Amino acid sequence: MAHRASLWSVCCVMWYAVVTGVVIVPEARAGDRPAADFFRNEPAGRLIHRLEPVDGHTALPRGLVLATKRQWLPELGLLVVDTRMINRGKTAAGVERIPVARWSFPNTEEPSGPDYRPLTHLNDKWYGSTFWTGPDWTRVGKDWHHPGINTPSIRCFTAPRDGRVSITGRLYKLDPSGDGVRASVRHGRRTVWTIELAGNDTKGTELKLTLDVRKGERIRFVVHKRGKILYDTTRFDPIVTYPDDTSYRASEGFSTSKQDDGRWSYEMEMAPRDERGPPRVYGFTPEMGFRDETLGIGERTELRGENMLPALIVADEVGRSGIVVAVDAKGRWRIDCCLTKDATPQLNLMFVAEKSSRGL
């Protein structure tokens, strides 16, 4: 007995910009990598980066096991996952529900704060490298920053695993003029280091920090103006090092094509975003009707194959990204979403056996 499902990461306007996906197919192999790891090139802050499997499984009759195989399709940006139930016992066994997937999306950052937007890569060269750019001179190059008028320039590091990291590097002005810059380091929403450089400070200062990080948490290196942005180009080439000497240097991981390539991404800071609202779930009827559900603490919403198309969207708390789940269903299915007591969205995908089923 096999069932297929699909999972997509969605950008901005969810029903128009589906960009990546996960699907479940026969004889597919992709190793033991976590599902979210296949989407590591998605911009920082997307809901897909928060995806984690939920510990614990529905108890199955003796002899029944779930087998999952995966295949990554890079040309489509799609992860195909084939889930099968196998009876390894000596006698037939019946089952009412087949648990295919249980995912949660814990939030490791504060619920409100600055709005970070991705920069766009430009092939022009400046100070020895191409650069990522935004409005009015917001730029991040291989080993330098330049802020915009209202948009600090940011180099963002996403932690690949839990651990204690040391952060080092020197910060100094490349243009010995102007009124100087403000620089800071943020761990999640917390500012853990800050400095101001005078316009003629070509010697600068050394950055030395130690932080305890969890996988998926973000460390942002921020450069902003003090007054005007003239002559504000600043060298900032941080190195993040784990205790086993695995290190990530910004200039060595600098990408000219993809965000989050080598664990580094490039952003600008906008004005503070509005307070977050509750996550939302969107479903579709066979007549292409639209169902919109708001998740409240401890509440649960359910979609069933009897009256819904086999797809839904789970949107994040600010409505700027989400997860699309599509089911290749040959039998009865059920998807339910809930918001746990700690405000973590959770999704469960089940296949429901027909009443006439004789078992496996």
Q: What count of helical segments does DSSP give?
A: 0
> Could you say which overall geometry the principal axes of the C-alpha atoms support?
elongated
State mean pLDDT (0 to 100 scale): 78
**What structural class should be given to the helix and strand makeup?**
mainly beta
Q: Which residues form runs of ≥5 with pLDDT under 50?
A: 1-31, 354-360
Number of domains: 2
Tally the beta strands: 28
Helix content: under 10%
Our estimate of the beta-strand percent is: over 45%
Based on CA atoms alone, the radius of gyration comes out at 24 Å
Order of helices and strands: EEEEEEEEEEEEEEEEEEEEEEEEEEEE
Describe the biggest sheet?
9 strands, antiparallel
Distance between the termini: 8 Å
Q: How would you characterize this protein structure?
A:
- By secondary structure, this protein is mainly β.
- The chain has no helices and 28 strands.
- Strands 8, 9, 10, 11, 13, 16, 18, 19 and 20 form a nine-stranded antiparallel beta sheet that branches.
- Strand 4 and strand 5 form a beta hairpin.
Summarize the SSE layout with pairings.
Elements: E1 2-11, E2 18-23, E3 52-53, E4 64-73, E5 78-87, E6 97-104, E7 115-118, E8 120-126, E9 129-133, E10 139-141, E11 144-146, E12 153-158, E13 163-173, E14 181-187, E15 190-197, E16 205-213, E17 218-225, E18 234-236, E19 239-241, E20 247-249, E21 264-270, E22 280-284, E23 290-294, E24 300-304, E25 311-315, E26 321-328, E27 332-339, E28 345-352
Parallel strand pairs: 2-5
Antiparallel strand pairs: 1-2, 1-5, 1-26, 3-6, 4-5, 6-28, 7-21, 8-9, 9-10, 10-11, 11-18, 12-17, 12-21, 13-16, 13-18, 13-19, 14-15, 14-17, 19-20, 22-23, 22-25, 24-27, 25-26, 27-28
